[in-house]
Design brief:
With 299 residues, the protein is an alpha/beta fold. The chain has helices at residues 36-46, 61-67, 71-79, 83-90, 110-115, 118-121, 142-153, 213-219, 231-238, 259-270, 277-290, 293-298, and strands at residues 5-9, 30-31, 34-35, 51-56, 98-103, 126-129, 133-137, 156-162, 172-180, 183-191, 202-210, 244-248, 251-255. The chain contains twelve helices and 13 strands. It has a five-stranded mixed barrel. It has a two-stranded antiparallel ribbon with strand order 2-3. Strands 7-13 form a two-stranded antiparallel ribbon. It catalyses: alpha-D-glucose 1-phosphate + UTP + H(+) = UDP-alpha-D-glucose + diphosphate.
Length: 299
């Protein structure tokens, strides 16, 4: 069982990062030296995706340009003998990978964004990756881990992680019946519950493997708060018909939709960067050692 198609909902405005995102897609914000969307695409390809479906809006041309070929740039790098950089540019999108771009006509929520992919996905099972959720997998990328579960069970798989009880109101929270270590069958799902009403502390994060049944269910899903169509509501309907598994991936997730999570990702992945790690670690050590105590407290 292969996942040939991956969907990337990238139509959001990124208001939490204004003014940086006024003229640039939030998914193009860099983590060290690669944009968020490139990390997401690499993860999808690691799980076997060959067709990448981007659900975009009218301010996302930078994403299209990033995955397009830049003849002028490549020519200049080649003429200047910058072969390493030239290879980096050419490797942004591996050979044999195709991109499809679909405009979301209006901002009506994640569920609506995914429903826009129906014409490109058709009757195939598919993956969904939210680029805001950058996941640094331990031994293999998170979606590749989920792909192994999908191959074994042949059903929808949703990534989850345990969060502090006082943070459950920020997430979709699942109730599960254990199937194995880190794996459970979803019995219920609640969007942003109060801590005292949450069925667990297992929070849904931005990785999904879904059957095409989700499209029909999204069609009949009524808009919720803010007039948005919630993917959580469609998944809640799906578990009445099909098995949907919750998988606790191995790795660390960075919420790059928040400024703090974005900064954390830059620092921690910078400390793993093959060209920068040693120098950056030394700099951070010197910075924290020389930072006056009163400034530390006021910060």
């Amino acid at each position: 069982m292969r996942l040939r198609k991956a969907v990337f909902p990238v139509a959001g405005l990124g208001t939490r990062f204004l003014p940086a995102t006024k003229a640039n897609a939030k998914e193009m914000l860099p983590i060290v030296d690669k944009p968020l969307i490139q990390y997401a695409v690499k993860e999808a390809v690691s799980a076997g995706a060959e067709e990448l479906v981007f659900i975009t809006s009218n301010n996302k041309n930078s994403i299209l340009d990033h995955f397009d070929k830049s003849y002028e740039l490549e020519k200049q790098l080649e003429e200047k003998g910058k072969t390493a950089l030239l290879q980096e540019v050419r490797d942004i999108l591996p050979p044999g990978i195709t991109c499809v771009y679909i405009r979301q006509p209006e901002a009506r929520g994640l569920g609506h964004a995914i429903s826009c992919a129906w014409t490109a996905v058709g009757d195939e099972d598919f993956a969904v990756i939210l680029a805001d959720d950058l996941i640094d997998g331990k031994l293999r990328p998170a979606l590749a881990q989920m792909q192994r579960v999908y191959q074994e069970y042949g059903t929808s798989v949703i990534a989850v992680q345990r969060v502090p009880k006082d943070e459950v109101h920020k997430y979709g929270i699942v109730e599960v019946e254990p199937v194995g270590p880190g794996l459970g069958e979803i019995r219920g799902i609640v969007e942003k519950p109060d801590p005292d009403k949450a069925p667990s502390n297992l929070a849904v994060v931005g990785r999904y493997i879904l059957t095409p049944r989700i499209f029909k269910l999204l069609e009949s899903t009524e808009p919720g708060a803010g007039g948005e169509i919630q993917l959580t509501d469609a998944i809640s309907a799906m578990i009445q018909e099909q098995t949907v598994l919750a998988y606790e991936f191995e790795g660390k997730r960075y919420d790059c939709g928040s400024k703090l999570g974005y900064l954390q990702a830059n620092v921690e992945l910078g400390l793993k960067h093959p060209d920068l790690a040693d120098e950056f670690r030394e700099y951070l050590g010197e910075l924290t050692a020389s930072w006056p105590r009163d400034e530390k407290k006021s910060a």
